């Protein structure tokens, strides 16, 4: 950059000297003219090469920097606690990882523009003072005006760019929500409403960008061009007033200053233009830093934790838990599951069943009470080891883009034989081998080409492959029809053998053989016992079971 700036300052001096020292006094020869032309051409070619090297190396550095930053924020996102994702729209997270980091790349280039412009302005300024100090001061007099423009721009642009970035985040959030819920939108004929809502958030973004363009058009390069024109007018007027009788030897100085006029103000204008990117980058950078600086990471074990899960005994003692730190959703809950036992959690929606699983899986940290696994605090077991030894099957099974084997393996270090063995263990092998390609059959994102039962069997295979000591089934058959459920019950029975199992039950008929059943209401355990004892008590569980039995009998009679 220093070399390029020096060349930019020297090229007009070459022409000025040629005009004043040779051409104006009649000493110019063809040989001299050719020599000066070749020298001029050589400097221009050298300048082009240097500009290429400068831009290439700087662009490479900016790409690598932003690529590293994008990795860093993604690594942060995947380690954040579930509370963050409960409170933040998916589109907003995507916008910070993609749009904001891309803007920071342009922000990085601001420094190239700024340093380049500063060096050019300094070298041109030195050259102007060397030629004519009085005229050079005319140009310098406009620098305070440029500084005032920069101050005004930064004051108002912060507000506009903040509004623009937030509007873009809302656009991404609305788009992500719409795509995810497209089946619901079309089913309930909500297309027009969603279009109108998207138009509103999109117009907010368009309006913010229009405000940005108006501000840039008023305060950036157009303003600098006006200042340049005024400065050049004054310089020419000074020449006209003070040198009406000037000789031809002054013509080169006039040429040099008219060349320097653009060369001096153009980099300043570029620096001002880069303020728009600079301001946008500041806003985007602050949004990225908001994520990187968050301290609500997923719960971690104590430093130096070396605990292991060997037998699978679970003891939950006087557990209280709140998602927001204010309103408890679990109150003084105590549960025990001995090695190899099966316990069930039942209750109405919102009774706290899934909250117990969320705490047990360390998706959230609890505030009061104690959780012991094999007699040791859950906080003394490394989270990675905890998740390896605890298998969770959710109500909704998510499938990743790829193939069947990869969705079971999840890119773990498992041989094909182990994958197939796991599928056979849960009775998933039957439908997999019927697919074209078998275990290499293609899976699109979400696994929408598979039935709910098939996806759940793949989820069972994924879990059993890791041979967990503790198995958690969170309403794993809730979305499966009764006939399909009967087909996979054998797979569930196989999974439960030799493992401590916690079942969140939707159909109470599936937990009749549980060693203990805990009935929850409003985050409290109100009944406890096995199926027969709870039926004999004639309490809440008895009523729930009788109601479900009546409904299932009605469905069978209807069929």
Automatic annotation (TrEMBL):
CDD domains the UniProt entry points to: ABC_6TM_TmrA_like (cd18544), ABCC_Glucan_exporter_like (cd03254)
Domain ABC transmembrane type-1 residues, every copy: 1-280
One Pfam match: ABC_tran
Keywords per UniProt: ATP-binding, Membrane, Nucleotide-binding, Transmembrane, Transmembrane helix, Transport
SUPFAM superfamilies: ABC transporter transmembrane region (SSF90123), P-loop containing nucleoside triphosphate hydrolases (SSF52540)
Keyword Membrane: yes
Any one cellular-component term (Gene Ontology): plasma membrane
A single GO molecular function term of this UniProt record: ABC-type oligopeptide transporter activity
Annotated transmembrane regions: 32-53, 107-129, 135-153, 217-239
SMART domains (UniProt xref): AAA
Location relative to the cell: Cell membrane
InterPro entries: AAA+_ATPase (IPR003593), ABC1_TM_dom (IPR011527), ABC1_TM_sf (IPR036640), ABC_transporter-like_ATP-bd (IPR003439), P-loop_NTPase (IPR027417), Type_1_exporter (IPR039421)
Residues in ABC transporter domain copies: 314-547
Membrane topology: Multi-pass membrane protein
Entry protein name: ABC transporter ATP-binding protein
